[in-house]
Records
---
Amino acid sequence: MTAQSLPEGFAPHFRKSGFTDPWEPLYSRSLEDRVQIGLFLAEAHCNSRGFAHGGLITALADNAMGLSCIQKMQSEGREPKGLVTISLSTDFLGTGRIGQWLVVDTDHVKSGKSIAFARAMILADGAAIAQASATFKVPE
């Protein structure tokens, strides 16, 4: 996969942040029940061994899972003002390398009135390299 061949439906990520600016370009795809975030791994995303940095993976998973919770709540007719991460866990299963397409795909969301839960898989060129889960506070 090359930068010229984004997966169908991906476009420049709609949520900009000073924290993620150094990782641009970031891409996202909004689906009815979730938001996926992806990027082509480059040197700026990797540790000294050329593997996707765990901090990058964790931060993108936090972002994608939070946005997916909001997406799910909106599909249920709710309009949350944003979410606050209560807890976040990432398990690393493999490595992503420079040039690979990395995507965070939230595969489960459960939202309550004041708490939301999400789980995601992180893939590099389709192979699972991490899994993450998070709990979010839904502000009143």
Note: Residues 25-137 form a domain with the Thiol Ester Dehydrase; Chain A fold (CATH 3.10.129.10).
---
Amino acid sequence: MRLATWNVNSVKARLPRLLAWLDETKPDVVCLQETKCRADLFPAAEVKELGYATAAHGDGRWNGVAVLSRGGIEDVSLGFPDEPSYGGEEGNEEGQMELGEPVLLAPEARAIGATCAGVRVWSLYAPNGRTPESAHYAYKLAWFAALRDALAAELAEGASLVACGDYNVAPTDDDVWDPAVFAGSTHVTPPERQALADLRALGLHDVVPKPMKGPRPYTYWDHKVP
């Protein structure tokens, strides 16, 4: 199986590039993150013309995830068990109250799982965390903990599993262009790095290539470069 993952940063804005890339490279399975597209508006018909079935999860805001597969899609999971929700910062009414009553928020569209040709595939878009002092940071760590439990349960059932995505964590200082710039910010804090290490401890392996000689490749990129 040839599998690819891409934080597409708006599937509608990148659609011509996505279609051209699919047609040229023909991966068997593609995981997309930050689709910024409602599931019912995902361009499934366009990718179907290239031989891909689609499972999409999105509400049209800044997140959204999808799995494309040339080998069929089964057992689709929109989110994972006990996935937490983000209720906003303290003092911010970001979806927390309605007519004076608490609102039970649905989890954001940050995870979708599907079985493709016998392989359990997850497309994941981890919360950013914003700042270590924010409620969003606590939400991020809770999200990782629940994800770990969900993947552990699937692995315990004997699943062949791949967890692709944008984890919003730099595993080491080599994964940022200047560690001093990131000091005290999210993506590099010990709890975030530990959360990512806890996923690997399930028996998962980072597939970023690690050459036998020379420096390992960076995993960051400049989103401002066209």
Note: Residues 163 and 169 are 15 Å apart (CA to CA).
